[in-house]
Specification:
Rossmann fold, five-stranded parallel β-sheet, alpha/beta, 5 strands, 8 helices, 2 domains
């Protein structure tokens, strides 16, 4: 049974609450400058990420909440990017990531159906990761799948394919988990309209929460909290 997303469960987690308090204090004491710094970083990664990898790589495609069990606009952009890469010969192994966000279908299964409908070659290897409900779990489960194929030889380089606003956080988590990862943007160019700016601001908040929580845990020697992303 694919995993079901429940974002509210995080608010009951003491370590995440702890990181949230540290983050809010940092924002207040800096007069918002800390958040601005993370926003600039997220925008730089978003605007500067390439559309293609320099070599053939395994592609990790991050899912997104479905609409009536089909991929919505942002997810379709991610799927179109990996479809283009497969046609250009820049990937022949795709991992579709994501459990159930709504309805009965997992994000990974809906993405696979979309790719098949749009002409994905049967020669491309596709794996579905349906046991995750957020970006961190996406990457943990992808790591488990890849390690099963390598027999302890280490993780192969991967292309992280997602929306530009989402890339900085995925890259931080992937490197923390030991991936040799390259961010690949779903959108051809950087959007600068209102909805996208709000998403960039939201993602910078998530990134700040994660990064400052890890740094604080390292500073005070709170290994349990630090090891949450490992």
């Amino acid at each position: 049974m694919p995993a079901t997303r429940s974002p509210w469960r995080y608010l009951r987690d003491h370590d995440i609450q702890h990181a949230g308090v540290v983050t809010m204090l940092a924002v207040l004491l800096s007069g918002g400058l800390v958040w601005l710094g993370y926003l600039i970083h997220v925008c730089r990664v978003a605007a500067g990420s390439p559309l293609t990898p320099p070599q053939r790589m395994i592609a990790l495609v991050f899912g997104r909440r479905l609409e009536n069990d089909v991929p919505e606009h942002d997810y379709q952009r991610r799927l179109q990017r990996v479809l283009t890469l497969s046609r250009q010969g820049q990937t022949n192994h795709i991992l579709l990531l994501g459990g159930c966000s709504s309805g009965q279908c997992s994000e990974a299964a809906a993405g696979h159906a979309w790719l098949q409908q749009h002409g994905l070659s049967a020669d491309v290897r596709v794996e579905l990761e349906q046991d995750s409900v957020d970006s961190l779990e996406n990457l943990r489960q992808a790591r488990r799948l890849l390690q099963a194929h390598t027999d302890g030889a280490g993780l192969p380089p991967v292309a992280l394919i997602t929306s530009r606003y989402h890339l900085a956080r995925c890259l931080l988590l992937a490197r923390r988990l030991g991936f040799d990862a390259l961010p690949i943007a779903a959108e051809p160019v950087m959007p600068w309209y209102g909805r996208y700016l709000r998403l960039l601001l939201l993602e910078s908040g998530f990134l700040m929460w994660t990064d400052l929580g890890l740094r604080w845990a390292q500073l005070i020697g709170l290994h349990r909290m630090r090891d949450r992303i490992s």
